[in-house]
Amino acid sequence: MRLNIARGSVTTYIIIVGVVYATLLAPLGAAGGVPVAWANTALHIITPIYALADWILFSDRARIGFNRLWIVLIYPIVWVVVVLVRGATDGWVPYPFLHPDTGYASVFFYVGLIIVVMLAFGSLVFWISRMRSILRVP
Predict the structure, then answer these.
(1) If you ran DSSP here, which 8-state letter would residue 135 be given?
(2) Could you tell me if residue 134 is inside a domain?
(3) Nearest CA to 71 among 12, 28, 128?
(4) Backbone angles phi, psi at 63, to 5 degrees
(5) Is the sign of the CA dihedral 83, 85, 88, 91 positive or negative?
(6) pLDDT exceeding 70 applies to what percent of the chain?
(7) Does residue 95 belong to any structural domain of this protein?
């Protein structure tokens, strides 16, 4: 069951990578991703679509209870803390909307948004785990 929760959490994270890229970073052009075009496509578009399709289509997962949804937040909270500490100390952050120069009110708005979106997509992924899969894995 722990592996299934970890897989559901990772599926949530990579779906959010795709959504954040499509909505916030792709419009920035080269500044919104890595400088290698095929890597952007593979990481930010193909992998999230594949992960969601895999989660929906295949039955090699157990039902995940919503009482475990909090687990989805562990990695993003640790990641945000590391990013904010690093942004405050040396100024580097991976995304422009988390840069301290935009003001901490803006940064914490996006952090709150990250938590809400993580819970929303985590709920969707956990809900899908309770649905019947289209394809059966022996």
Answers:
(1) B
(2) no
(3) 12
(4) -70, 135
(5) negative
(6) 91
(7) yes
CB 61 within 8 A of CB 8: yes
Quick one: how far is CA 12 from the chain centroid?
5
Q: Give the dihedral of Cα atoms 88, 84, 14, 119; nearest 10 deg.
A: -150
> What confidence tens digit (pLDDT) does each residue in 78-118 have?
999 999 899 889 888 888 788 888 888 999 998 999 899 99
For residues 132 and 85, which has the higher predicted lDDT (pLDDT)?
Answer: 85
- Residue pair 123/69 in contact by the 8 Å Cβ criterion: yes
The number of angstroms, rounded, from the C-alpha of 102 to the middle of its chain's C-alpha atoms is 22
Give the Å distances, CA to CA, from 60 to 56, 64, 136: 10, 12, 8
- Which pair of structure tokens corresponds to residue 24? 């916030």
Q: Could you tell me if residue 136 is inside a domain? A: no
Structural domain containing residue 71: 2-129
- How many domains does the structure of the chain reveal? 1
Distance CA 55, CA 118 (A): 17
Q: What does the block give as tokens for 33? A: 């991703």
Structural domain includes residue 137: no
